[in-house]
Amino acid sequence: MSVKIVLVAACALIDADGRVLIAQRPPGKPMAGLWEFPGGKVESGERPEVTLIRELKEELDISVKEDCLAPLTFASHAYPDFHLLMPLYVCRRWEGTVTALEGQNLTWVRPNKLRDFDMPPADVPLIAHLMALI
Ligand SMILES: Nc1nc2c([nH]c(=O)n2[C@H]2C[C@H](O)[C@@H](COP(=O)(O)OP(=O)(O)OP(=O)(O)O)O2)c(=O)[nH]1
Known about the structure:
Layout: E1 5-13, E2 20-24, E3 35-36, E4 39-41, H1 48-60, E5 70-78, E6 83-91, E7 106-109, H2 124-133
Parallel strand pairs: 1-6
Antiparallel strand pairs: 1-4, 2-3, 2-7, 5-6
Keywords: DNA damage, DNA repair, DNA replication, Hydrolase, Magnesium, Metal-binding, Mutator protein
Family: Belongs to the Nudix hydrolase family.
GO biological process, one term: DNA replication
């Protein structure tokens, strides 16, 4: 049986206090209300770093340089209707002020508090990697 693999690039923005930005998926979308790392689907022919730079501008109004995106780990998770493959980058440096351009709720959280937020199941194993990093 074939499975649809969906490639999503995600980023943990980390502020000077070691807090990570998460965003709440808006109503109407799959997994609405869950807290996730900013990012989005990698379009055909697009490099994941380019996806992230594009999504961070569209969603958060910040400019990120490619050499400020450091790969940390990835999620590989079987959802009922697709398989998610999601590289997680970290970024500590950007230009501009983080602004919720799509009306999404945003919050900055210490990694050891991420478990207090409902996140997509694919994201749960990523928390330990952020705790180890910060
Ligand atoms: N951005 C992001 N997506 C995540 C995370 N964890 C996780 O399972 N996902 C899933 C949710 C979606 O199925 C997919 C990301 O797609 P998306 O946010 O660009 O698209 P979407 O579901 O709104 O769908 P679409 O309308 O753009 O087609 O990856 C995460 O931490 N960040």
